[in-house]
Predict the structure.
Amino acid sequence: MTSGMDDVVAAETVLSQIDGEAGRLILRGYDIGNLAGRCSFEEVTDLLWTEVLEAGHDENLARAIGAGRALAFQRFSPLTPYIADLEPIEGMRFLLSAIGEGDDLAEPAALAGATGVAAAVAIRAAGGKEPVAPDAADRHARDVLRMATGGVADNAAADALETYLVTVMDHGLNASTFTARVVASTRAGLPSVLVAALSALKGPLHGGAPGPVLDMLDAIGSAENARPWINDALDRGERLMGFGHRVYRTRDPRADVLKGVVQGLSGRGERLGLAEAVEAAALDILSERKAGRRLDVNVEFYTALLLDAVGVPRSGFTPLFATGRVVGWLAHAGEQVASGRLIRPQSRYVGPMADAAA
Ligand code: ACO
């Protein structure tokens, strides 16, 4: 066993399957490329939740998610003075902590709606802006984008965000999803699952990477500067954000889905040329310097470009990641509770034996 539990199988799931060698992601039998860009947030939520969560396959799921947004806004908007000085991901964590187990927001569909509202309210609060109220009748992706950016979300931008949310909805037993299952296994309830999983997502080795990807592109500035900048960063022992993955030994299939979306956002993908040059230089340099390890681009690299192109500030990237991933977290929580088993692994003691230090 490695300290990162790389080879440990800790759960059985019907939700998603990653083939790290082939670069393939399947959600309940569907290739991610056949869902993202074709199905709505609500449809893929329904796909993941059916027979897994009680709320699954509810004909009124879209309405229940919209109602959750409306209810969450009432709960969260008076709390904005408390989060003005927090990073959006921390403000979001604060807002979601205000949901008690057993209240109306603790239902899966309401929690999915509330997560998008918490993201949008926290993004605006960190920018010193008033929260924007939801439209419960709108589709989730467009409503969240409108609430987060404060502008009229046109269909192209809303479609782009929707594709993104579907693309990141579930992804095997990643760190935040494992966290969700551990907390669910204690019967702590879905609001606690959500806050715990969000906290795990926040770190830069997991969902915190896309903001730093944009910082990196800004620091590099031009295609000519890519190679020297990357070499300097690696000489300093830094990791390149948006590259590498624990499971994929090839290109992350989600990266190409998102890159295609950015290419289609005419006039808005201004960083795309630079990003492609940085990607090419990084892959070349990583293959030389980390010859024993196949490192490729991961989902976060083109996430950064997509979310930037639709007008989301970079500190809001991780909150929007959570807005998609919440669907998977809740589904895994449902599976874990149904399994009935508390997750309680063991550690191997390597300290001194009793009285040895005396
Ligand atoms: N840049 C430079 N070197 C890297 C990178 C990187 N992005 N990723 C891995 N490496 C190096 C490691 O330092 C290690 O080198 P060493 O053996 O000389 O010490 C070697 O490659 C092998 O690392 P792995 O065991 O493959 O990495 P691990 O599985 O522990 O980490 C991780 C995976 C955390 C994603 C890593 O690749 C990383 O830090 N990437 C940058 C952050 C990032 O993009 N995170 C988002 C991941 S996607 C997601 O969570 C949604």
